[in-house]
Amino acid sequence: MPSRQFFNLPAEKQEDILRACLREFALNGYDGASTNRIVEDSGISKGVLFKYFEDKESLFLYVVDRALHTYADAFPTRDVLSYDSPFAWIKDVTLRKLRFSKEHPLTYQLLMRIAKEPAHPVYAKAMGSVARVSEQYLSEVASWLPNDGLRDGVTWHHVFTLVKGITLGMMDQYVARLPEVVDEDFESAFEQVHADLDLYLDIIRRGVYKEERP
């Protein structure tokens, strides 16, 4: 976490620093990122930067955490109530993530760097943040939903745990198919992944509802 000094800065200055960090880490990765370029781009000294953040690793992990919440905040969990079913919501959110990624290419590029190199020691820590934010997000979605209509003993928490498990199980395949940057191949690759997810969601949907549901 940043120091109190960082949070005492005007919001605009905080954003200037974090934008410079996001750009540097997204374009160059953790190992190739230069704090010299970050301070030059954000108009502060290196000494000041490390008054705000303990070290390069803590800075990187904070930027990743911000990127994750940028994604999550773009898709409010309560929106699930406006869909015919949670499965329709999952499908739509997946497509909306495509548009969001195209509008925020550096955020996408940073998170894909992490996903494609899970053995990297710093990226492994970042993946822990990915798992935590995902768990919190899906738990909040499930909390909005009544369990009426599901098979006895099944809750939406169970359903989303299953969805998350399938997604994690397919992670290597999905990551391999998605490009590292938002380029001309991005949309078609994303749509292929979405088609696979649609198939698995249909399988789950058929298994969790009570038999009388059409």
From TrEMBL:
The keyword DNA-binding applies. Residues 11-71 form the HTH tetR-type domain. The keyword DNA-binding applies. This is DNA-binding transcriptional regulator, AcrR family. Residues 34-53 bind DNA. It holds the Pfam family TetR_N. Keywords: DNA-binding. GO terms for molecular function: DNA-binding transcription factor activity; transcription cis-regulatory region binding. It comes from Alicyclobacillus macrosporangiidus.
